[in-house]
């Protein structure tokens, strides 16, 4: 990848995840206009959810809905392998922390903010969970699959989305394959809509994925679970 101004700003944004010391954290906050809360003066209406991978597109958000949150997800896609199986691992869910991207947006040049935002998952996937937990970027919620296997997104006061998939497209061939650029590929981009039990939130898009794909074969051996690290953007509408 040829370095660009956007590339270097993205690197600086992700470096804000690093937790070196209390003193360095305070210095970072001063020099980055204090990454703090959702009270930052950001007009989310000026951002457009990415829908196209270059050859195919997800459906547009339903008319009348508004963008409620842009988050960066960092977690694992989870799979199982039966004993002795040489078939592909079976997907059984996912779990992820959802970081609030809103405080980062004022740090980016306005003309490049969305382009830089789109670069972040490929760097985020290489950061461990302890670093993210201690970062200056606030957590906004959690993504899990509930006991009945329903994808669930809990954004606290913003709302809860119990989701069902409405569309998927492959990640672009240039998408990051996984942590440090190594892995079996990026999981699909998704459009999901509300299912019973949702509160305030209606739709979510998973786009600009990095990592998360299972290996092509279980490879035989003992029964086991596989966790594949991934990162992505999640755009919530309500």
Descriptive report:
The structure is a single chain. With 238 residues, this protein is α+β, with helices and mostly antiparallel strands. 16% of the residues lie in helices and 32% in strands. Strands 1-2-3-4-5-6-7-8 form an eight-stranded antiparallel barrel. Strand 1 and strand 2 form a beta hairpin. Helix 1 packs across helix 3. The N and C termini lie far apart (36 Å).
Describe this protein with a few key phrases.
8 strands, 32% strand, eight-stranded antiparallel β-barrel, alpha+beta, 238 residues
Q: In terms of structural class, how would the helical and strand content be classed?
A: alpha+beta
Strand residue percentage: 25-35%
Quantity of strands, as a count: 8
Largest sheet: 8 strands, antiparallel, barrel
C-alpha geometry: globular
Report the order of strands and helices: HHEEHHEEEEEE
DSSP helix count? 4
Cα-atom radius of gyration: 18 Å
Distance between the termini: 36 Å
Which range best describes the helical content: under 10%, 10-25%, 25-40%, 40-55%, 55-70% or over 70%? 10-25%
Mean pLDDT: 86
Strands side by side in the biggest sheet: 1-2-3-4-5-6-7-8
Poorly predicted spans: 18-37
